[in-house]
Design a protein that fits this description.
about 40% helix; alpha/beta; 6-stranded parallel sheet
Length: about 475
């Protein structure tokens, strides 16, 4: 069947994305592509999505799918870590003799538009930041033979020159967007794999109900979603939950918003609406500890919230100040304690190898993970991502290897001055050892196995094995020599 547009999530494996932590990595629905597809459909265009990772397609089979789609325009999304895969796919498309316009979108090109098109000559256009309206403008111009230069929010080629059009304003009214086109994806329950720590029940899926963050963290590529908070209304958000529950049988949802708990009135309205439903949905969210309203914990717990994940980053106040986290260790400890007291699972996201990091500051972070009361944690290597302040300043604080395929947070590409790569890897392993190999943590996970379904048992047991294998890597050998 001929389509106006085919949108592609390029082939990349969990091993390429997560390294040693592939077993605990998630394979989430590509919501960005789903929003683009539904917006294009709303404007009368026919669209197909090819989600290569979910379908386990290699390069050849992904190319075959693109060929069968026969689309007039091909769009490929790419994060930084998947950029090389997107480029390989674009080269294969051109080698196959497909001459239709190729568009690249996603966070990488949004942060480095000119550099990306220089590096990737197969792409004709780059969509910068939110693309729901931009893609419709592009399709309209290409169909009518109109000019691309008047379309805001793109990078395009003008002969040998790469031109940036004026910036497109972020979408103010998110409710004007149609629901993501989940129907264009393979079966949500069968083909997508949430991380074992991120769901209470299966099938589980993810939602993004707001966009934008006014934080100042130096490691975060804020410009991609904008620095102004914008949100779907409570009514729209709950309607999306309804749709996932009733059409796809979803029983658990992870809200990936940076600021889900920011607007208290909206949170209250969402919770009150969920409490009136004739179904029970479990859900989790991310929380910024400096702005989280702890007085809402009782309500959100009753409405089905079972876990809040906080960006803790470090257990050393000096490091928090250096990365402009705008939070104190005292506040972090208070929020974690009150989360636990409300019966909500507290999870911490941390990084090691931040600017100014030392063996002493890593030890403080290791102690904080154990003493703060966190029920779960997740630690990666500090990685300067395109669009983040640290991407431009990293060389002031240490050495930085700018290899896109390694910028997945699981490889120490940034080494703070005074430390070595080997020190960071050993500290990373030790942190997992000290946290997860404690008896109380181990037995909590054993208890979780008793109350989950067969797939959950397999996921959790496999993840536990590989995390323990990683954490103990080199440790037993050292003890024996």
């Amino acid at each position: 069947m001929h389509h106006d547009l085919v949108l592609v999530n390029p082939p990349i494996t969990l091993e390429e994305r997560y390294g040693s932590f592939a077993s605990v990595g998630s394979l989430a629905p590509p919501l960005g592509l789903c929003y683009l597809a539904s917006s294009a459909r709303k404007h009368g265009y026919t669209v197909q999505i090819i989600d290569a990772p979910a379908l386990k397609l290699d390069l050849a089979r992904t190319l075959a799918g693109i060929t069968r789609a026969g689309a007039e325009v091909i769009g490929i999304t790419a994060s930084t870590v998947s950029l090389n895969r997107a480029l390989e796919l674009a080269k294969a498309v051109r080698r196959a003799g497909i001459k239709e316009p190729l568009i690249i979108g996603g966070p990488h090109v949004s942060s480095l538009p000119r550099e990306t098109l220089q590096e990737c000559p197969e792409f004709d256009l780059g969509v910068i930041s939110e693309g729901e309206y931009t893609i419709c403008d592009i399709l309209s111009a290409l169909k009518s033979g109109g000019s691309l230069r008047d379309i805001p929010g793109i990078a395009h080629r003008d002969g040998t020159e790469i031109m940036l059009s004026p910036r497109r304003d972020n979408i103010a009214d998110l409710d004007a967007l149609p629901f993501p086109a989940w129907d264009l994806l393979p079966d949500l329950a069968k083909h997508y794999k949430p991380s074992p720590h991120s769901y209470r029940r299966l099938p589980s899926s993810s939602l993004m109900s707001s966009r934008g963050c006014n934080g100042t963290c130096t490691f975060c590529a804020r410009p991609f979603m904008g620095e102004k908070y914008r949100a779907h209304s409570a009514e729209y958000t709950v309607a999306m939950v309804d749709h996932l529950v009733k059409v796809y049988g979803i029983k658990d949802i992870m809200f990936y918003d940076d600021n889900f708990l920011l607007d208290k009135k909206r949170v209250i309205a969402i919770c009150e609406a969920l409490l009136k439903k004739d179904y029970v949905i479990s859900w989790s969210c991310l929380g910024r500890p400096e702005i989280t309203s702890v007085e809402l914990f009782g309500l959100i717990r009753r409405a089905g919230c079972w876990q809040i994940a906080y960006g803790v980053e470090s257990g050393d106040q000096r490091i928090l100040d250096t990365i402009k986290k705008r939070v104190t260790l005292e506040r972090l400890s208070e929020v974690i304690r009150k989360t636990n007291e409300a019966g909500i699972h507290s999870r911490g996201y941390l990084m090691i190898g931040c600017p100014g990091e030392t063996a002493e500051s890593i030890e403080k972070t290791t102690r904080f993970t154990r003493e703060s009361g966190l029920k779960d944690f997740h630690v990666t290597f500090c990685t300067p991502m395109p669009g983040a302040e640290l991407f431009d300043t990293a060389q002031q604080y240490g050495s930085f290897e700018r290899d896109w395929k390694k910028l997945g947070f699981w490889d120490p590409v940034f080494i703070p001055r005074g430390m070595t790569r080997e020190q960071l890897i050993e500290a990373h392993r030790r942190m997992y050892r000290k946290f997860y190999l404690r008896p109380r943590t181990f037995f909590r996970y054993v208890a979780k196995l008793l109350f989950t379904n067969p797939r959950g048992i397999v996921d959790t047991a496999k993840a536990g094995f590989y995390v323990a294998k990683y954490a103990l890597g080199g440790y037993i050998r050292k003890r024996l020599t």
